[in-house]
Amino acid sequence: MSRSISRRQFFKVCGASAVAMPILGTGTVQAANSARVSYTGFDLDADKALIKKAVPIMLGRIQSKSVWQNVYDVSARYALSGKVMKNSNMTDNEKNRKNLLWHQLSILSQPNGPNDTGPAFPDINIRGNYKPKEKWLGRAHVDKVVIKWDGNEWVQDGEFDLEINTHYVNSGGRYNNAEEWASTIAHEMLHNLGHEHPEDDGGGEWQIDALNMAILCGGHYGHADHKHVCSFHRSGGHNW
Ligand SMILES: [Zn+2]
Hints:
By secondary structure, the chain is α/β, with parallel strands linked by helices. The chain has one domain: Collagenase (Catalytic Domain) (3-Layer(aba) Sandwich), CATH 3.40.390. It has seven helices and seven strands, in the order E-H-E-H-H-H-H-E-E-E-E-E-H-H. Helix 2 packs across helix 6 (about 180-190), helix 3 (about 65-75) packs across helix 7 (about 205-215) and helix 6 packs antiparallel against helix 7 (about 205-215). The longest helix is centred in the N-terminal third of the chain and has 18 residues, at about 45-60. The protein is globular and about 45 Å long. The structure holds zinc ion. Zinc ion binds next to helix 6. Zinc ion (ZN) binds near residues 191 and 240.
């Protein structure tokens, strides 16, 4: 089901030029919107509690400009679904493709306009799934949430929807850490927004992977002077 929620009156002033210029220059607006979140499929209360603890961490950081900047500082590689540019109604060129993530996160972080009574952030559906033999922490479909220019204003359609492999939740070490799950949830949400990470590698990190590291590190991913749980984490290869 796709429905239009939370029209962004804020961006009306950008007019058609915004379609070609995804860096919108929104200055310091940082709403850190809350979101309605549903949790299903968690058999253990402790697992559900850890994921519930992770969500506000994720929401605060994914709406932080310093986290987006961290991604763009460390990663120049983007991989998008076949539909995301068309869905967005933005001009499909290299610059817009590279800037799409920043653009999407900027819009998701805006507060509601004066006549807008819906939630400012799309709903998030988190589904626990116990898969002890499978090597994934989370998974999600692409293109579940669309940020698009409707000819008049920016509109967001759809809901975030992702799975968490509960086999790993509270399984020890970093898997007992809410920040770790905040980063995984953010990564899956980027899949929902149309971002991918193809297998072919050799050119550095994809934006979607840099984002979950930037979430984990609170915007300090790759900063040599920042001692943090994330410092040992950059291992290449991932399983989600
Ligand atoms: Zn992934």
